[in-house]
From TrEMBL:
Protein inscuteable homologue C-terminal domain mapped to chain residues: 81-236, 241-495
GO molecular function, one term: cytoskeletal anchor activity
UniProt superkingdom: Eukaryota
GO cellular component, one term: apical cortex
Leader sequence residues: none
Gene3D superfamilies documented for this protein: Inscuteable LGN-binding domain, Leucine-rich Repeat Variant
InterPro entries: ARM-like, ARM-type_fold, Armadillo, Insc_C, INSC_LBD, INSC_LBD_sf, Inscuteable
Protein name as it appears in the record: INSC spindle orientation adaptor protein
GO BP terms, alphabetized: apical protein localization; asymmetric cell division; establishment of mitotic spindle orientation; regulation of asymmetric cell division
One Pfam family per UniProt: INSC_LBD
Length: 495
């Protein structure tokens, strides 16, 4: 039986997926429960059975998986134990608000035990980095303070005293949560450095693939871990990225190359502010871009193409040098040919990545001639007609992005008279006017409207005779903002 258990830590902390052997996990969980129980007994804290508690609420989670994937490495252990602590702290916040003092204290004891166990286990497995040690000591002291102060609340019914204690405990609990998060972030960063060193130093494809897979799984657990990975890669000064490049270039297994592309896509995402710190990325730009465009060309399925093209699209935002490299590598031919292959480009999401790359390439003057040669204007007009095949909001948003970027690309390329003339011959003007005047054609998207107005005006500037007088009066002659307001308030039918 295969199961994937998904856990979510306190507040915005990312979710973690662990795949393990069920019997092995049960044995590990049992050990953790016994440790906490012993600690409670040693501190003379009786464990009472309460109405909504289940086995002391110490279940860490269980899962089933192939024996080779038992979660024994430090990274998975760290995530699992971090989850346990975060869960206990979350329960404490809830019980504190309800004033259930007995349960607040018992949870504080368990959290204290788990934190100490985690710190001990990690220190045993790894040499604790100096910057972590101050957080460890502070965290352990605060956990002990939390245990002591919650115990005081068990021996009084004074509402005024309990109210003041509730505020004090809330402040301490917040400090504990913050300190714990900082410590875990540092520990994760340390483990990421270990993974990168494995990639750099190993000659084994299996070891490299395993390390890459672990990195990829982290990038899928939210922006916080992506940020940590990006910062670590900065500190190792491109060596981690260079290792990824080696995998992408030399590993024959497509899955491994796709995983590496996914890592690059995640850490270079424009949505993560940490990408501004990846200056070392420039040193490996040519090798990365070369590997990714080759992967786009040879991709056996849509998923692989999407990962590689998404990484390329992010990189073209990252630095203009990537656009020049892509032109040298015949990227326009590769990408436009891929658009004709439904096995590779089969969704609006893939088309979004392709047109993003084309839009960024179109700022270069030499791009226009290549687009013409590859019949790229025809492809852009097809992309202007992109429509969702379902009612999925995400698919609808992807289609809007495709339309917008296709219009932007067309506007930029139409600086070249030959491109503008070709676009007019291919009936680009009627389609742009339709998108401007019909809200449903553009899915009521303002961004698509603005892009289409800009493209229309670019074409009209070079070929004014291509626009009829009425359209020129409403869509070209006024200020852009006035034409926008006119079209955005336009109804599709008139009575």
């Amino acid at each position: 039986v295969q199961r994937f258990w998904h856990f979510r830590c306190l507040d915005s902390y990312p979710s973690f997926s662990l795949q393990v052997d069920s019997v092995q996990r049960w044995m590990e969980d049992l050990r953790h429960m016994t440790e906490v129980e012993c600690m409670c007994v040693l501190q003379a804290k009786p464990i009472g059975v309460e109405e909504d508690s289940q086995q002391g609420e110490l279940i860490v989670g269980s899962g089933v998986g192939a024996g080779d994937h038992v979660a024994r490495n430090n990274l998975q252990t760290l995530l699992r134990r971090a989850l346990v602590v975060s869960t206990e702290l979350g329960k404490m916040f809830q019980r504190l608000e309800k004033g259930r003092w007995q349960r607040v204290h018992s949870t504080a004891v368990r959290a204290n035990c788990h934190v100490r166990s985690l710190v001990h286990e990690y220190s045993t497995a790894r040499s604790t980095p100096p910057e972590m040690q101050k957080y460890e000591k502070s965290l352990l002291d605060k956990c002990m303070e939390l245990t002591n102060i919650t115990e005081r609340c068990l021996h009084t019914d004074d509402e005024f005293f309990l109210k003041s204690m509730r505020e004090a405990i809330h402040d301490i609990l917040t400090d504990v949560s913050d300190s714990f998060s900082n410590m875990i972030d540092m520990a994760l960063a340390n483990e990421i450095r270990v993974l990168i060193k494995q990639i750099e130093s190993s000659d084994s494809i299996h070891t490299i693939g395993s390390a890459i897979s672990n990195l990829l799984s982290l990038t899928q657990d939210g922006p916080q871990l992506c940020s940590i990975i990006a910062k670590v890669l900065c500190t190792v000064h491109a060596s981690g990225l260079c290792a990824l490049i080696v995998v992408v270039l030399n590993v024959s297994v497509e899955a491994a190359r796709a995983e590496a592309a996914a890592v690059v896509a995640q850490i270079t995402s424009p949505h993560h502010t940490s990408t501004q710190h990846l200056a070392s990325f420039l040193e490996s730009m040519h090798d990365i871009v070369t590997a990714l465009i080759k992967l786009c060309e040879s991709a056996s399925c849509g998923e692989v193409f999407l990962l590689a093209s998404a990484a390329l699209a992010n990189i073209t935002f990252f630095d203009s040098m990537a656009c020049e490299i892509l032109l040298q590598l015949n990227a326009i031919h590769i990408l436009l040919q891929a658009c004709k292959d439904r096995q590779r480009v089969d969704t609006p999401y893939s088309k979004d990545q392709v047109v993003t790359i084309l839009a960024n390439l179109s700022v270069l003057e030499q791009c226009a001639s290549e687009v013409l040669q590859e019949q790229g204007v025809e492809r852009l007009l097809l992309l202007l007609g992109e429509k969702p095949s379902s009612s999925s909001p995400s698919e609808g948003a992807a289609c809007e992005r495709v339309q917008q970027k296709a219009a932007v690309t067309l506007a930029r390329l139409s600086r070249d008279p030959d491109v503008a003339q070709t676009a007019i011959q291919l009936k680009a003007v009627p389609r742009l006017i339709e998108l401007c005047r019909s809200p449903t054609e553009r899915n009521n998207s303002d961004s698509v409207l603005v892009a289409c107005l800009a493209a229309l005006r670019r074409l009209a500037a070079g070929c004014p005779d291509s626009i009829e007088a009425a359209d020129h009066q409403q869509l070209i002659k006024p200020r852009l903002v006035d034409s926008f307001l006119l079209c955005s308030n336009m109804e599709e039918s008139f009575v």
